[in-house]
From TrEMBL:
Residues 301-311 have a biased composition (Acidic residues). It is found in: Nucleus. Residues 18-160 form the Orc1-like AAA ATPase domain. GO terms for cellular component: nuclear origin of replication recognition complex. GO terms for biological process: DNA replication initiation. This is Origin recognition complex subunit 5. InterPro entries: AAA_16 (IPR041664), ORC5 (IPR020796), ORC5_C (IPR047088), ORC5_lid (IPR048866), P-loop_NTPase (IPR027417). Residues 298-318 are annotated as: Disordered. Residues 338-477 form the Origin recognition complex subunit 5 C-terminal domain. Residues 215-272 form the ORC5 lid domain. Belongs to the ORC5 family. It comes from Dimargaris cristalligena. GO terms for molecular function: ATP binding; DNA replication origin binding.
Length: 481
């Protein structure tokens, strides 16, 4: 079997065009991999932060140099057991991908390293050309047992096939290296991009109808605003895609010209702030964000959520409604996140603070609906409360009452859909809520028994939190019945 040669100069040039800022890494990889028939180093380790182009570049180079039966790519996130790893490698190297001819069935079944080795030996033309096995997210290999990786590194010796193992990881080699020792790899580092390279990468997606200079000045602003906290190419691309239409908006309604970049930036500032609030954490998807800031044209009062605003591409190019973005920001303030059970603890605390204790049995006893008490009984309680407090919503006005922790826990266990066991974690979550000042301890700090607390959150916030866990707090608050 002979292997065709590859024009490495051309390949280098096309890789440089496709992946600006990665010329040194591409050069290094091409030097190590060489021509398909060349013998390569047995072990390469490629590492760098997220979105630095590791996967894209390695896959591009391998696909350009080798045909698919000589290089296998394994994502260790998808192939999370040794069996999946073996079978995926064999499917790729043996070219037994599910196909129409084979009835979309794959016939490779391989459970152990011994079987894998014997399958490898039987591959067509196995002994003539080197093979390449790429493990992406390679840090996950460490979960497959201490001998898995060392065995793979000896695969060439065990199968008599020259094989190069390429690991791609976000973990540097010094932290990756197993304790029991392993051969040293050749390292290829993918450093984080600087401003110049980031701009070149982002400029690849410049819309065909926009002047490159104008687009670059926008990207430069985006980079300056966001790069302190976020240098991730994927995130920056996402932000650029969302904000560019807003940045251009004043051009279309005549409020600014292309040359007035600072003015355009000033007009778009609200959206930059809203995007920073909402999109760093990807609390909402880009489609949701666009729906929020979507502009309704005059006469358009249909709630047209079914059409995808991203697809249409024109949906946010109307007049800006700045209050929308501001409203988004205000909403964000209520949108901090807590663990799932902690949210229920906070809800239980709110209920304990705002409901009369003697109604707990009626509201929260298991098997009883909150509406199970008679209408007369409900009216009597309301009447009594009104005479005591001078008005129905009085408790909301008076503020929270203290409650014993045991009462709050009783409410907590009754409102949970799936029961959990009382554990140390619940106690530590209560302590965290106190630290966050969402619960305020009202009993003496030296008192360890009979601790009392107050809930320190507003109705608006608790309603928001309850909605996030699909709990209808209105049905359990005395003020609302
Ligand atoms: N130099 C570059 N030129 C063009 N696009 C790039 C460059 N670097 C990264 N990208 C793009 O960034 C995105 C993320 O790249 P990729 O998935 O290869 O990164 P990664 O280092 O493998 O990230 P992770 O560690 O999260 O897997 C891809 O869309 C890729 O095309
Ligand atoms: Mg990757």
């Amino acid at each position: 079997m002979t292997a065709s040669t590859v024009n490495l100069t051309l390949l280098r040039r096309s890789a440089a065009q496709r992946f600006p800022g990665r010329e040194p890494q591409v050069d290094q990889l091409l030097r190590y991999l060489g021509q398909p028939a060349d013998t390569s180093p047995p072990f390469l380790f490629i590492y760098g932060h997220e979105s630095t182009g590791k996967t894209s570049i390695v896959r591009f180079i391998l696909s350009e140099i080798f045909d698919s039966t000589h290089a296998a790519y394994i994502s260790c996130v998808e192939c999370y057991t040794p069996r999946l790893v073996f079978e995926h490698i064999l499917k790729q190297l043996g070219d037994s991908h599910p196909s129409f001819e084979t009835g979309f069935l794959s016939n490779v079944k391989c459970d152990s390293m011994q079987e894998f080795i014997s399958f490898m030996r039987r591959l067509d033309g196995a002994h003539q050309l080197p093979r390449y096995i790429v493990f992406d997210n390679a840090e996950k290999l460490r979960d497959m047992g201490p001998t898995f990786l060392p065995a793979f590194l000896r695969i060439a010796e065990l199968t008599d096939i020259p094989t190069t193992i390429i690991l791609i990881s976000c973990v540097p080699w010094d932290k990756f290296r197993p304790r029991n020792g392993i051969q040293e790899p050749l390292l290829v580092r993918f450093p984080i991009y600087g401003k110049e390279d980031t701009m070149k990468i982002l400029a690849l997606k410049c819309p065909s109808d926009e002047p490159l200079d104008f687009y670059l000045s926008f990207i430069s602003v985006v980079y300056d605003v966001f790069s302190r906290n976020c240098k991730d190419i994927n995130e920056l691309r996402h932000l650029v895609a969302l904000l560019f239409p807003k940045f251009c908006e004043p051009l279309f309604d005549g409020r600014a010209k292309r040359s007035e970049v600072p003015k355009l930036f000033r007009l778009c500032q609200t959206y930059f702030a809203a995007a920073a609030d909402k999109l760093y954490l990807r609390e909402i998807s880009s489609a949701e964000w666009l729906r929020h800031i979507r502009v309704r044209r005059p006469g358009d009062d249909s709630d047209d959520n079914s059409s995808d605003p991203e697809d249409s591409g024109t949906s946010i190019l109307g007049n800006p409604i700045e209050s929308d973005a501001l409203h988004l920001r205000i909403k964000t303030k209520l949108d901090f996140d807590l663990p799932y059970y902690t949210k229920f603890l906070l809800i239980a605390s709110f209920l304990a603070s705002y409901n009369p204790a003697r109604l707990d049995v009626r509201f929260f006893s298991k098997g009883k609906e909150s509406t199970s008490y008679s209408k007369r009984g409900k009216q009597a309680i309301q009447k009594q409360m009104m005479s005591n407090t001078g008005g129905k919503h009085r408790q909301q006005l008076l503020g929270p009452k203290s409650f014993p922790i045991e009462r709050m826990l009783a409410i907590f266990y009754s409102i949970l859909v799936d029961p959990i066991e009382n554990s140390i974690e619940i106690q530590s979550q209560i302590a965290s809520l106190v630290t966050l000042r969402l619960l305020v301890r009202t009993s003496n700090a030296s008192q360890l028994d009979g601790i009392k607390c107050k809930c320190n959150v507003s109705y608006e916030l608790i309603r928001h939190i309850s909605h996030s866990v699909q709990f209808e707090i209105e049905n359990y608050l005395f003020d609302f019945i």
